[in-house]
Structures are given as C-alpha cells and as structure tokens.
Amino acid sequence: MNPLLEKLGVRLPIIQAPMAGTSTPAMAAAASSAGALGSIGVGAVDAAAARAMIDQVRAATDRPFNVNLFCYPPATPDAAREAGWIARLAPEFGRLEAAPPTALCEIYKTFVTDEAMQAMLIEAAPAVVSFHFGLPSASVMAGLKQAGCVLLASATNLEEARAIERAGIDAVVAQGWEAGGHRGLFDQHGPDPRLGAFALTRLLVRELSFPVIAAGGIMDGAGIAAALELGAGAAQLGTAFVACPESSADEGYRAALFSDAAWNTTMTTAISGRPARCLANRFTAIGDGVAPSEIAGYPMAYDAGKALAAAAKARGDYGYGAQWAGQGAPLARSLPTAELITVLMDEFAAARA
Amino acid sequence: MNPLLEKLGVRLPIIQAPMAGTSTPAMAAAASSAGALGSIGVGAVDAAAARAMIDQVRAATDRPFNVNLFCYPPATPDAAREAGWIARLAPEFGRLEAAPPTALCEIYKTFVTDEAMQAMLIEAAPAVVSFHFGLPSASVMAGLKQAGCVLLASATNLEEARAIERAGIDAVVAQGWEAGGHRGLFDQHGPDPRLGAFALTRLLVRELSFPVIAAGGIMDGAGIAAALELGAGAAQLGTAFVACPESSADEGYRAALFSDAAWNTTMTTAISGRPARCLANRFTAIGDGVAPSEIAGYPMAYDAGKALAAAAKARGDYGYGAQWAGQGAPLARSLPTAELITVLMDEFAAARA
Lengths: 353, 353
Prior knowledge:
The structure is a homodimer.
Chain A: H1 3-8, E1 14-16, H2 25-33, E2 38-41, H3 47-60, E3 65-70, H4 79-95, H5 115-124, E4 128-132, H6 138-146, E5 150-155, H7 158-166, E6 171-175, E7 181-182, H8 197-207, E8 212-215, H9 221-229, E9 234-237, H10 239-242, H11 251-257, E10 265-268, E11 276-279, H12 282-287, H13 300-314, H14 337-352
Parallel strand pairs in A: 1-9, 2-3, 3-4, 4-5, 5-6, 6-8, 8-9
Antiparallel strand pairs in A: 7-11, 10-11
C-alpha cells in the first residue's frame, strides 16, 4: 500500500478513468467495489444530473470514487467562426440527408464558472474529485478540501504539473500522448511537446515531490507494473474499460474498438473543438489537414459534432462517433468491470513475480 | 539472463543506441566492455570508414557490439525541389553571412544498394548488425546471418514489426514516439500512428513471437525496469549517452541538452529530409509549418542542413545543429559511458527491489 492509495482509500493501484459520456455510475461503482478507484465524468451534464450520478454510485457502493470536472477557460462563442465550421460540415450533413445546425451552442459549462456545480460538489463531497483541462479557483479547491475531498488533476507537461503541485492538489495524473479522449492541455493553443506516457511519467516522478498517476496506453497488468516501476503510485486506465458491459459506448464504438481501427488512433480537434484521441473514422478524416483555427471552439464544435454523429447513426452509420481511444486500443477486452479488475491484478502479480 | 541477452551475448539488458554522428567507437567499446551492447552507426560513412570504425571498436573490446545501417529506399534527387529548398533556406544563410549551397548532393548511400558496404560487413561480421528505416535484401540478410551476425531492426508500428519478423530478424527495436533522432518509419510518407514507447512496446510484445527491445524516452534504471515489465528483453537508450565524454556531440549540443530546450523536443523533417526528434532550436523553428513536400528529400536536405549548421557554428552559433534528443532529455547525465552503465544497473536493481 503506497501513500497515494492510502490517501485515495483504495486497495489497488488502478483508477478507472472518468471518460465523460462513456463511463457510468454502474461502472464506477463496480470498479470501486472491486478495490480500484471508480470514476464518473460530469463535464457533459449539469449540477442536477451530476448529483443524480453521484447518488447512483453511492447507492451501489460504499467505497471511495472519483468525480471528474472539466476546467477549461470560459468558452468564447464566435458566430462567424461557428458559421464557417457549419459551412465546412454542411456537405457531410448533405451526404447524410440531414440539415446542418443553424447555429452552435455552448452545450456545456466549464466548472470554473459553474457555481451550481461547485456548490453541489462541495455539498455532496465525493471522496475524490479530479480536474481536467486546468484548475478551478483557489476558493473552490479550498471548499472541496474542507469538505474532505482528495483532489487530482491532469497534466500533459511539467509546467501544468507544477501549477497543480503549487495549487495544493494531492496527486497529478500524467496524461501521456497515447491517452484516449480529450488531451488535458491547460492551453490548447500553446505549444504541446506531446510527451509519451513513458517519458512524461518518469519526468514528473523525478521532478515533483507529490504522487504521480500514470495514464496513456496502459491496458493490462504488465502495463500497470511498468507504470509503478516508473515511480507512479497508480495507473489510470480508460480505453481498457470502454468495452465493459457497464460502459455506455454504443455498438458502433465497440465494433470499431475491436476492428483494425484500433491500430490507428488519431489526435483530432474536429469532433469537439479541443484535441482528443479517437479511433480514426470518417469524422477524424474530415479534420485531417484542417487548421485548428477553422474549427469552432470548444464546446461549440462539439454541438456540431454530436449533431453529425446523430444524423449518421440514424442511418446506421457509426463512422462519425466520438470513438475516443488510446494507442493501446488493440488490447481492449469486453469483460465486466469487476472481472476486468481481477484479471488486471492477476496479470500485475504475474508481471511482478 | 533472458533469451535475447543470450542471443546478443551480453550480460545487461541495455543497448547503447547507434546514433550515427554522435556515438563513437570509443563509446561502443566502453558500453560493450561494461556488459551492455555498444553500438556504432555507419549510415553516414562509406565502407572504408565503417571498416575502420569496426576495427577501432575491436581494438578496444573483445565483447559483442552492434553496427547500425540505414536502409531507406534509394534516394530520389529532384533538382527543382532541392532548388526550392535552397531558396527557402537562403535568407538563413544570408543572416549568417554565408553563401547557400548551389546544389544539394546525395551525401550518403543507402545500405540497400551499397554493395561495397554489404561486402565489407559480411566480411567483418560484427556480432550484431541492426537496420533502421527498413531492411536490406533477403540475400544480404542471409549473407550476414551466414557470417554469424545477430540481426536487429527498428519498427515504429505493427506492420513494420511484422515485416521484420517475417524477414527472420532476431529481434525488433520498438522505437516509440519519444525517441530522439531519426524516426525509423519504413515509408516516411505513409501514415504514422505515432505510437508512444509504452503502448508500442506492449503492443509488439503481445502481438509478436520474437524478442522486443524498447526504445524511446528511457533514461534511467527505473525506465529500464519498466521496459522489462512491459515484456521487452532489453532497453535501448540513446539520449542517455549523448553527453558522455566518449560522445562526439559538440559543446553547443551538450549545452542545449542541459538547458530548458530539453523539455521541448520536436519532430522535424527540415534538418535531414526525414522526420527526426531534435531539441527545439533555430533550425527546427524554420521547419515549423513547412509542408514536408517543400523540403528536399533525404539525404539531400541533410546536405543543406549540415552546411547551415556549419555556417552558424563558424560564427559560434550552435542553434542550427542536428541536436537529436528524445523526450527524456531532461534526465541526461554527463557521466563516462562505463560509469553511466554502472549507475543505470544500480538504479535498475533499486527499482526492482
């Protein structure tokens, strides 16, 4: 039992990644009950829905679990840019015999300014709260700490990790270049050294004096063992859980994950407006070669992205989905969450022996 | 002692990477004498010079060592494209008060067609021969095997690794996205999934039935231990050796390696005509945003690159050098090669304990 696990109150060095839109309260509860740290992501829902999700996890487990928030800078809607992006996507909607949206909405609120979510979270006080894309205000973090929450935050480079350490966060999630889903860059327009999980984990462990959680491309017990050899206190796995029955991934996403597409994930900004790693599909192909400045900002682009995916899905075409996956995708399994965790720990023990 | 190390005839799970132009016969001999596999890269010299290098290593150690060859497709000089690239670099030469080259030469020969090098190598028969950028002909590989050479080759993805396995190569070097220097892509114009070392190593170990050597971002004993947990038979470290006294890195390269630039490596095609990871410097900045099709092909672009670096260096400006480095660069040390290997193994033992 290392200090990080003690702090988190869990037995196993495994964090089931939050994966807003894919993980579920059932998955988080199963992961936590199995001894790992289960997570839900509430970046895509409002305070009431988030509270309901928290209550669902609590109804299913008495173990600690993690609630993940998106802390990007307040969105900057720009009608001209959004219109340009709609125009760019219009032929795709046309091909699907669907009307493109007439305008794009700010479909999510950043936690940074969502006072209802802040108040709800401090009141609900889940055992662990994690931040992605940045940090909330010092007073919100203080409120959560006072409520007894252990805090985590993602970093993709040393600068972000140092900001996280300075803010008094309990541990940093080192999100490697391999990781599926949204890249946690604080400034999506800043330089990105694209550090791989191997290098990033080791660099952060060597440079920082608080616990590091390795993330990106970790899919099995040998990967967890390797992460711990690099000095991480735990490994965070997302893609490994996408195909679990508790996941809300649709059949197209699951089929793509078990196809050759798993060998070809790509970092795309086209689906949501922020860089995210996705199984290469028709939507990521649209984004190839498009300058990020042409794509609507986050989360307005995601409004278009969801409309396009829905239009396609209505015709049985899953090729436009936000099929987030990390580079380890070919090693995905479709076991139930609890069983997957047992297998992961068996593999971990075998790797260490 | 795992099967790979037995085959290589070495005691330690460390390969000092070839690094043509940076490693030296003295470094290779020191690494091999210390129990690792030392390497020289002869991709930038002709058969006679390569033979002299091999003889130098042999004069200094009786242990096995590795000779690395560049196996890219025969170069395709294109006067118009080269003229375009010279024109593009002309203002840089102007700033350095130097004349740009009037034409670019094919400064190296690929091993694939270099019959003198092939004959020399079969005759010299070093214990280990490794290939980068592809493979030579079946008959050359057969000749080397018959001469008793153990063969290695780099892969950046599964497809390349399978081609290497099919060719009967003894082990594959899984070159992760983090790795410094030239990316070993067989087809530099093909799609590149940019697999991080963590994901790539584990994927190849899981998918292939011959030994895997992990490379990319590995800088210390914990990294070596992690690579072995992922199932690799050994770890290949390049950047870790760049600052050793036996290295031919110039003072500018060493200074950059120990500066903040180490935190910001970048994949650039501008220096040589093939993608390679370099400490961000004035030269990599030139390449930012330039379409690969505008840059002269390899190795013609390298002719321009070397001329530009030389013109700058003549004025005491090291900012245009081919300062290859991997993402683990901030963990570089300037210990003598043999001492570094002792430290790496001490760290390895500590990580495993």
